Amino acid sequence: MNDFERDGYIIFRDVIDPDLINEVHGHVEWLRQRHPDVRPEQLGHIYLRDDPFWLRLVSDERLLRIAELFVGPDIALFASHYISKPPYSGQPVLWHQDAAFWPLEPMDVVTLWLAVDHSTPENGCVRLIPGSHTWDIADKRANTDVESVLGEEIAVDVDEDQAVNMVLAPGDVEVHHSAIVHGSEANTSPHRRCGLTIRYIPTSTKITAEEQPYPSAFHLRGDPGVNVYQPWPAFDPDRHYAP
């Protein structure tokens, strides 16, 4: 935890077993077939809010034990998002701070990035600027010069020579602070790079978005706290992924 306080990130290896990762591979492919007009980098919570498998995954006790180290025992899900970069054409994620985008008060939240595929510099792994979680939250600006996942970037210069690559194997989990400056390159390799971002909050953190309950707000553990949550969906074989 001292490393996280100093650097703003930490990696946990071999968190999720290969059998469950294989089920996740099937889930991503099922989502792609279900939403053929959506870029695979954009399989976010609006496509997952009524998805029992996804909820089983994000509430896996192995992930919640890690989340508890950062947000305490009373845990809710704020948002989650598959970013699946296809071979040769996967879009980059421009430099940004997550906290610049999120309707949370206070900004007490942690991201767990679950590697579904091997994640390497060649296929566009996450890159972080160590220690940048201590910076102020900067403005963001649109960037239309390159097609990217967010379409926006941090409105300050970033010294990319300071960046560290998050090289991960399937089942590894990288954890980062909401204020750390991070991004990733395009995937021009022949190998897909898929990860699931999971944003956990303590139930004392208020989701302040106008839409209530927030599409991906689910109570996962402990006291429900200050938010209104989505009901957990019942499995329907005609509508849901069945591993």
Explain what the structure shows.
This protein has helices spanning 2-7, 18-34, 52-58, 61-71, and strands at 9-12, 43-44, 75-85, 93-96, 104-105, 110-115, 126-128, 140-142, 152-154, 164-165, 173-177, 182-184, 193-202, 206-207, 218-221. With 243 residues, the protein is α+β, with helices and mostly antiparallel strands. The chain has one domain (2-221): q2cbj1_9rhob like domain (Jelly Rolls). Strands 1, 2, 3, 6, 11, 13 and 15 form a 7-stranded antiparallel β-sheet that branches. The termini are far apart. The mean pLDDT is 96.
Radius of gyration: 17 Å
Structural class: alpha+beta
Mean pLDDT comes to 96
Q: How many domain regions?
A: 1
- Distance N to C terminus: 35 Å
Question: What is the assigned CATH homologous superfamily?
Answer: q2cbj1_9rhob like domain
Q: What general form does the structure show?
A: globular
Could you give a short account of the major beta sheet? 7 strands, antiparallel
Strand tally is: 15
Approximately what portion of the residues adopt beta-strand conformation? 25-35%
Pfam family, one: PhyH
Keywords: Dioxygenase, Oxidoreductase
InterPro entries: Phytyl_CoA_dOase-like
Protein name: Phytanoyl-CoA dioxygenase family protein
